Amino acid sequence: MTVETSFKNLLTRVGALLREKGFRRTGNAFCCSKQGNWAVISFQRSTKSSAQSIVFTVNLGVASGSLLKFFGQPKDHAHKIDQCHWRQRLGFTLPEASDRWWCLDADQDPEGVVGELSDAIMNSALPVIEEHLPDDALRAVWESGTAPGITETDRLRYLSALLKIQGSEVESKEAAASLRAGAQGRPTADLAGLHLARLDFWKSSDEQLVGRWVTDPADSESLAEYGEVSLDFGPNGRLTYTIHLEGKRQIMLFTYRVEGNVLVIDQPSEPHEERTSFEMTPSGKLVVFSQPVSSTYVKVGDVEAPGFPKVKLN
After folding, report:
1. Helix (H, G, I), strand (E, B), or coil: what is residue 214?
2. Are 81 and 39 in contact (CB under 8 A)?
3. Average pLDDT over every residue of 155-174
4. 193-219 in b/e burial notation, b at 16+ Cβ within 10 A?
């Protein structure tokens, strides 16, 4: 058996264990989506590897879906360690807490390495990843001043953005001020400047919702289920839901508020809150995960009236 075959078999064996935990393989990496974020376990080969031996380490990572979206990256897939906002080498989760590298030799029985790695990943790596998976856990790490696997500049970029997303404006501005001060006169000054500009122009989900949205013409499934629908989100929590029928309109008036990625609506005439998940896509579309069919909407204008839009039943 060649050393390349042994390494491939190692990945296959580890992959079988991780598949049971919801991970899927892409190349030499395994990823899993949980709580809107991504867990990544990536095998990295050393440049010291040869035809007779493969030297490798294992990188652990967590990617925040909120931060991926903030920075304009696809939030529905993350499988590269450099997409992660928290990173750690597997060796630092083990009792010796060191930068551990493993070696597979051509004349070596790989079972010992397979067993050691499987135990380390299942009993050390996964618990540490789970601990750091929620956004609040990432925030706590960065607020403590530590930045495993990333630079100080990135720590402040990620922290200021996450605080902004979570509505902690004062703390976000403090982190941004630290970023600005630390980058002055340094090679990271341009990167920091771009980030600060992005922070200034970023809008919360509430602000992005305000305006008129209509069913995406390409969303044939939603059109078949609900018909042509328009949503008018007012700036003061008022929502007009209109179904456009042939020759007439059916109009319903609601109040709304946003809690994270959940849209909470209520009908004043018959009070009863309904909660539905939603997201803004990188292309600017609104996806509402309603039942039985999700709906995609495109924005066509702004709602200027401070109260309920003035409409008439036809």
Report:
1. strand
2. no
3. 93
4. eebbebbeeeeebeeebbbbbbbbeeb
Q: What are phi and psi of 62, to 5 degrees?
A: -130, 130
Tell me the backbone φ, ψ of residue 27, rounded to 5 degrees.
Answer: 65, -125
Residue of 251, 238, 252, 241 lying closest to 215 (CA atoms): 241
> Helix, strand, coil: what percent of the chain each, to 5?
35, 30, 35
Residues 104-148 pLDDT 10s = 988 778 888 989 999 999 999 999 999 999 999 999 999 999 888
Which residues have CB under 8 Å from 215's CB, separation 6+?
Answer: 222, 223, 226, 228, 229, 230, 295, 296, 297
* Cβ–Cβ under 8 Å, residues 57 and 89: yes
Torsions phi, psi for 308 (to 5 deg): -65, 135
